[in-house]
Amino acid sequence: MIADSHFHTSFSSDSETDPRRQIERGIALGMKQMTVTDHHDPDFPPGEFDFLLDMDAYMSGMGALREEYQDRMDLGIGLELGLQPHLGTLPGELVDSYPFDFVIGSTHVTRHIDPWEREKLIEGITEEEAYRIYFEEELTNLAQFDCYDVAGHLDYVVRYGPNRNRFYTWERYGDILDEILKTVIHKGKGIEYNTAGFRAGLGWGHPMPEVWKRYRELGGEIVTIGSDAHEPEDLGACFKEAGEFLRSVGFRHYAVYRHRSPVFYPL
Ligand SMILES: [Zn+2]
Ligand SMILES: [Zn+2]
Description:
The protein is of the alpha/beta class. It has a single domain, classed as TIM Barrel, CATH 3.20.20. Helix content is 35%, strand content 17%. The chain contains nine helices and eight strands. The chain has helices spanning 19-29, 55-68, 90-96, 118-121, 127-144, 170-186, 196-199, 209-217, 239-248, and strands spanning 33-40, 74-82, 102-106, 150-151, 190-194, 223-226, 253-258, 261-266. The chain has a six-stranded parallel sheet with strand order 1-2-3-4-5-6. A two-stranded antiparallel ribbon has the order 7-8. β4, α6 (170-186) and β5 form a beta-alpha-beta unit. The structure holds zinc ion (2 copies).
């Protein structure tokens, strides 16, 4: 079973799942490795959740679980770090302060708007403009920050427009997506295959298939696979589809990060 490199627990403000339940689920599915990546999203717009981790409690809590389960599960301790262009040196300093195995750099918020609030996403602009602004801010994030290992769910925003991914095509957005991929590759970073796209009804895991084909064409090698599960039922979801798809576009390995370095396993 492919290792899950993106899931959440009750340390994230938007999950109520005891971390043990995620680990037990991983063991039941036959995973040998998994990497927890709870949310830390500095300066998230005020709302239901603050998406801030109590970092000391997280590191010590997960450290204890890693030890407790060491005979049955190789548990990596990672982070899903929310990036925004104005955060400056903060994300880098945070990542340098703790011994993470893995850091996913995710763009959730753009223009100080949480796309989850769908009506705000397109207030005064078109869906296409909102998507484009998202990709431009994401490019800025991925170019200016170095404190991440892979870019999380590259086209996350298309879950939230009124037409979702209906008009989201390579023809329309390929120019900016191309720049994102080149930036990631140039920096020696990777991208993740995020199967939450299936659960969101997009018909694929993020990012869309054309992005993977282009990533491969450009020489992209580093791929992590994550379910983005906030509940045990979603852990490892659609990993068979993920593996088959990635193989179909030419990938033969996926990566699991330990001590911030990728270790490759056959798909
Ligand atoms: Zn995310
Ligand atoms: Zn996530």
